[in-house]
Write a structure and sequence with these properties.
This protein has 421 residues and is α+β, with helices and mostly antiparallel strands. Helices cover 75% and strands 10% of the residues. The longest helix has 39 residues, at 183-221. InterPro entries: PqiA-like.
Length: 421
């Protein structure tokens, strides 16, 4: 009686943790999906609007803070003097060229008698200083800034892409959903929630693994108590069923590739982007099967159907058949279908193969992502980019692995019960 109560409590704890793990797993997937959407590279590095806003902010700041330095004034004065000297010389040469008409000769004579070109050339520096002073006056500077600002505003209005409006609509919806006022606040809130959920999910997964380990240890200690084996086996089957359900409905693998930061210098100002999501996917085993079945290609559909049959349906049938064989009367227990499912169908069970497949897929994807993202890491005087690969196996994978191992323990328990019977 005490053993039954203890196992029932462990079953209840496993079921409670499994339910919340599956629930929080879906919540985590939704939060991560929202995070990857609002920070998608389409709305960042690939958005003309984002580039325009950052560049215009720098340029407008330069215009607003425009002021000629002493060195710039000297350089500008030298250029103005050069232009004025050239203008005076060109004008004098134009008038002093040979004239054929009486009016032209009269104009040339009057010019040479009244105007001394050398005197005008000597006054060029004072003219240049007057021009520079006038240009650098507050009124002229303000007028030049207004002209530059209006032209920049016109260019800004003419430069846009189709992502701008979509990003505004998306941002408003996200702000309302999470009750924030900016993308920075949204990212902070999502990051904190995701970190909390990640810790809770692993907490629930470890509790489930602890319950399974405790039941396995208890069976090993009581393996010689024949009268307790049936009770332990039935409750163990229910625990295994919980592990299987949670393992196929919770996230098992997450692929997350980002450009952590990209920065460069423009007019002495630092421009850049952060947390640009290149690719994100988070799938449970059941979702992977659904994706395969929904594909238009027959081979993908076939793979999805086979996975569903041999990774989900068959293990459930094996658990049911094992329970019927132990609890049922002789006619049910000795039924050919029941005996086949309980003792001989394990060779068709692909759950263990699926574990290896998921692990190999993760290793392969992780290697490819590291290789590809490594090529995007740039560090030089002009540009700096840092990529991050946050891909990982999820708690659902641990639970599914626990089911596969526990299934082996159950087969040993069933053989022991059958042999003693």
């Amino acid at each position: 009686m005490i053993l039954t109560i203890a196992l029932a409590i462990l079953l209840g704890i496993t079921g409670y943790c499994g339910y919340h793990l599956s629930l929080f797993s879906r919540q985590q997937e939704q939060l991560k999906q929202d995070y990857s959407t609002i920070n998608n590279i389409t709305f960042g590095i690939f958005s003309i609007d984002q580039w325009r806003e950052q560049i215009m902010e720098v340029v407008n700041g330069r215009v607003d803070n425009f002021k000629l330095s002493r060195q710039q004034k000297k350089a500008m004065q030298a250029q103005v003097e050069k232009q004025l000297h050239g203008l005076v010389a060109k004008t004098a040469a134009q008038i002093n060229r040979p004239q054929k008409t009486f009016a032209g000769k009269l104009k040339k004579f009057a010019f040479n008698q009244v105007i001394d070109v050398r005197d005008i050339q000597a006054q060029v520096p004072s003219f240049a200083r007057t021009i520079i002073t006038k240009v650098n006056s507050p009124a002229s500077t303000k007028r030049l800034k207004n002209i530059a600002t209006s032209k920049l505003g016109q260019l800004e209005r003419q430069t846009y892409d189709s992502t701008g409006e979509a990003q505004v609509v998306l941002a408003k919806a996200m702000y309302a959903k999470y009750q924030v006022n900016s993308t920075t606040q949204l990212n902070t809130k999502l990051t904190h929630q995701l970190e909390d959920i990640r810790k809770v999910n692993y907490y629930y997964a470890y509790i489930m693994l602890g319950c399974v380990l405790f039941v396995t240890l208890l069976w090993w200690l009581l393996r010689r108590k024949a009268h307790l084996q049936t009770t332990m086996f039935i409750l163990s089957l229910l625990i295994a069923l919980v592990l299987l359900v949670v393992g196929v409905t919770s996230s098992i693998i997450e692929v997350d590739a980002r450009i952590g930061s990209m920065s460069f210098m423009l007019l002495g100002e630092k421009l850049g982007f952060e947390n640009q999501v290149l690719f994100y996917q988070n799938k449970s085993l059941l979702e992977i099967i659904q994706v395969l079945v929904s594909q238009p290609k027959p081979d993908a559909v076939l793979v999805g159907v086979l996975l569903f049959l041999f990774v989900i349906v068959l293990p459930v049938l094996i658990l049911i058949a094992s329970g019927l064989h132990v609890l049922g009367n002789e006619r049910i227990a000795e039924n050919k279908v029941i005996r086949y499912l309980a003792f001989e169908s394990g060779k068709w069970n692909m759950a263990d193969v699926m574990v290896v497949g998921i692990a190999m897929t993760y290793i392969g994807l992780n290697g490819i992502l590291k290789s590809q993202l490594g090529g995007l890491n740039i560090h030089n005087d002009m540009l700096t980019t840092v990529t991050t690969n946050n891909s990982s196996l999820q708690p659902g994978f641990l639970v599914f692995v626990a089911y596969v191992i526990y299934e082996i323990v159950l087969s040993k328990m069933l053989k022991q019960i059958t042999n003693k019977a």
